[in-house]
Amino acid sequence: MSAGWRLAEHGTPVTVLERDDLATGASSATSHMLHGGLRYLEHYEFRLVREALHEREILLAKAPHIIWPLRFVLPHHAGLRPAWLLRLGLFLYDHIGARNRLPATETIRLDRHPAGVALKPEFKHGFVYSDGWVDDARLVVANAFDARARGARIRILSHRSPNGRLSPRSRRIASHRIAHRSTVARSATRA
Ligand SMILES: Cc1cc2nc3c(=O)[nH]c(=O)nc-3n(C[C@H](O)[C@H](O)[C@H](O)COP(=O)(O)OP(=O)(O)OC[C@H]3O[C@@H](n4cnc5c(N)ncnc54)[C@H](O)[C@@H]3O)c2cc1C
To answer: Is 178 near ligand 1, meaning CB less than 6 Å away?
Structure first.
């Protein structure tokens, strides 16, 4: 849906065909995180993380009614990478992309911070960093509405007429498209 929205934003004619219903696929079953991909820094994917952080900022600005800032606590222990290395990674995470709306990483003493209350005493230090969480299904629907407002055609193939049957139009599209069971968001080739 996001690809469809992007094409519509650029004025490209687009039809999004959805076999079941909006947000019935992976997009309604995520861990609801709006993140920049902190873990990809381990694989030196700096460009990917920068792009994702940039996108995170755009979405935070565009849809604050369905996306909320979230603080994550990362307790440090001996089994992890050295604390200085984690701090460096989090410093990069704070700075290589856009971060206008979210607070920066903090290093905390867990014995003095509310986040440490439920932890065993051996956890002494930790980090608190920012990402967001999103109502993913609503984001898909919001994208669909906005794409449609920009001229995209959204076709939900399973939509049925009041008598419970697929409408003739849906049936026609479905018979042309559904057999392939490939992904959505292809350019307009409506039958
Ligand atoms: C367990 C898990 C957790 C995740 N957590 C996160 C997270 O926290 N944050 C994050 O950003 N990303 C997360 N992701 C990744 C994210 O879910 C996916 O990148 C994203 O949802 C993919 O969107 P999509 O539109 O490509 O696929 P989908 O959301 O699956 O949409 C594909 C749609 O195509 C339809 N379709 C399929 N075949 C056809 C056909 N032949 N004709 C018409 N329509 C068809 C389906 O019905 C479906 O609605 C997670 C993924 C998984 C699996």
So the answer is: yes
